[in-house]
Write a structure and sequence with these properties.
heterodimer; A: 298 residues; alpha/beta; six-stranded mixed sheet; 11 helices; elongated; B: 248 residues; mainly alpha
Chain lengths: 298, 248
């Protein structure tokens, strides 16, 4: 049984369809990235998984049951939805204490999570004066409060500096390695690529792809970039060898021939190679490719 | 119990609550003190044989009533205004227990504010009044008035909570609660018959023991009628909160 699952989830707001017949499952033990452009329905899906809104059709399940039925909610699922959802006049520590009190969690745990997100020094100050990064940490602390089995974080990397990103990645990977389920959303590929191992990609409320990060970037067409002393000579030779060759500035983009063969062909012709680089398709290219495919299909 | 503690913390960890109660208390003390200290005794006591003598001793109630109404609205709406409702309902996915806890807190604050009022009014206004040789009502009558005041504070906080849960928008709910209670609900009194007595403005008059109309429901019935209004609003608000999406 997957820890988190949406089945044929549809959510309409009047005429707008925010999520359209979406189905996917999230397993424990790894960080899953939930990727899509702004307005693609990520937040709506997450809110449905948290029981904060009712699906128009379909269902959102936590450990196989609707979220409203959760017995011990904060120990089951911890969520950070947006970094702005704090009372500006309340201190970070008191914010956490009100949540801890509701779940019967002792105040000592509040101090623990403050320590974990490195917010102890600022905890007595009112949230009004917090930076975006500090609010992100406070939201994360709230999510971790009940030592939940599942973490759902909406754009957690927003507002973090590079050091904060690394810290977040380490923290989330630790959580996943401990057997927990982690789902993080982002509209930025570069962020997700740094943190997640599994990807769920949606667009306009529909599923575009679900795959591991490795699967996602593989299958880039096997292009090789070559620079050489005699480009046109090498190009002819490669074309003869049944490769498809395209000129790219002072280099050639070759497909259909692997890099070792290209080197051999060049050696036979006596052409000095300056650069020989197999191209891995970047996540970014793959993403836009998928988005483009979807556009054509629609 | 855990939810009550959570809501109690929420209330007292923001400055708004302290400032509001402080203003209400100060205003009340000033008003009661100045009025009983400076107005003519005849005016305070009112015509002989009329209940106004009692009413005017329990003076300065109005400001605190508005504050209680607003405080009730705030208890319900602040979480929607700042988006903390999502966190709250993550901890209580069924939602209604959190609202029940909020109701408990609203009633408790109303009671505490009422008791504070009694101390201020009894300690300041009545003693000033007696000092000046005024005709202080019998202890039993005073207790009756004060009981009505304390109860009305608690019920008005609940009333505000109900309106807040229904409207959700903070400013809108404050306006709606005050407009309904102080502007709309006195209007049916103009209708023939006693129907107006069953609207909040008249019911609270009965509860305070100073109905403005000729016929009064009596203190207990007035209190029950007012309580029923508050209960109905809270029930409707809770139902709506449980059904509505939280999408921001």
């Amino acid at each position: 049984m997957p820890e988190l699952e949406v089945r044929n989830l549809t959510k309409r707001y009047g005429r707008t369809v925010a999520v359209d017949d979406l189905s996917f499952a999230v397993e424990a033990g790894r960080v899953t990235g939930f990727l899509g452009p702004n307005g693609s329905g990520k937040t709506t899906t997450m809110r449905a998984l948290l029981g904060l809104l009712r699906p128009t059709r379909g269902e959102a399940l936590v450990e196989g049951a609707p979220p409203v039925a959760m017995r011990d909610p904060l120990r089951t699922i911890g969520a950070a939805l947006e970094a702005t959802a704090f009372h500006p006049g309340r201190s970070g520590r008191n914010h956490l204490r009100t949540l801890a009190a509701a779940a019967g969690i002792p105040d000592s745990r509040v101090e623990e999570v403050l320590e974990m997100v490195e917010l102890t020094d600022a905890a007595g100050r009112r949230v009004k004066g917090y930076s975006l990064g500090m609010r992100q940490r406070l939201a994360l602390a709230a999510a971790l409060l009940g030592e939940p089995r599942i973490l759902i974080l909406d754009e957690p990397a927003n507002g973090l500096d590079p050091a904060g990103m690394r810290w977040l990645r380490d923290l989330l990977r630790d959580q996943a390695a401990g057997g927990r389920t982690v789902l993080i959303s982002s509209h930025l590929l570069s962020e997700v690529a740094q943190i997640a191992e599994e990807l769920v990609v949606i667009r306009k409320g529909k599923l575009v792809a679900q795959a591991s990060l490795a699967e996602f970037t593989a299958g880039g067409g096997g292009q090789v970039r070559v620079r050489a002393a005699d480009l046109s000579g090498l190009g002819e030779a490669l074309a003869e060898a049944a490769g498809s060759v395209a000129r790219d500035g002072d280099a050639l983009l070759v497909s259909g021939i692997e890099s070792a063969r290209i080197g051999e062909i060049a050696l036979r012709r006596g052409i000095a190679i300056h650069e020989l680089a197999p191209q891995q398709q970047s996540l970014e290219e793959r993403f836009f490719e998928l988005m483009g495919e979807e556009e054509d299909g629609a | 119990m855990t939810l009550l503690r959570s809501e109690w913390l929420k209330l007292w960890t923001t400055r708004t609550t302290w400032v509001m109660l402080g203003i209400a208390l100060l205003g009340e003390a000033l008003f009661a003190g100045l009025y009983t200290g400076l107005a003519s005794l005849a005016e305070i006591e009112g015509p002989a044989g009329e209940p106004e003598g009692l009413e005017t001793v329990a003076t300065g109630v109005g400001l605190m009533l508005v504050m209680m109404l607003v405080l009730g609205v705030l208890i319900a709406t602040t979480e929607f205004r700042y988006g903390t409702a999502s966190s709250t309902f993550l901890a209580t996915p069924k939602r209604w227990p959190a609202l029940l806890a909020k109701l408990g807190i609203a009633l408790a604050v109303g009671l505490v504010a009422g008791l504070v009022y009694v101390v201020v009014n009894g300690g300041l206004a009545v003693s000033l009044f007696a000092e000046r040789g005024g005709d202080v009502p019998a202890a039993a009558d005073l207790i009756e008035i004060y009981a009505g005041v304390v109860a009305s504070y608690a019920v008005l906080a609940a009333f505000g909570l109900g309106v807040g849960a229904i409207v959700r928008n903070q400013v809108g709910a404050i306006i709606a609660a005050i407009a309904f209670f102080f502007v709309l609900s006195p209007l049916p009194e103009l209708l023939p018959g006693s129907i107006g007595d069953y609207f909040p403005a008249q019911a609270i008059g009965s509860l305070h023991g100073n109905p403005e109309g000729d016929e009064s429901l009596g203190q207990v019935t007035g209190g029950l009628v007012l309580g029923a209004w508050a209960a109905a609003l809270v029930a409707l608000g809770t139902l709506l909160v449980c059904r509505r999406d939280l999408s921001e």
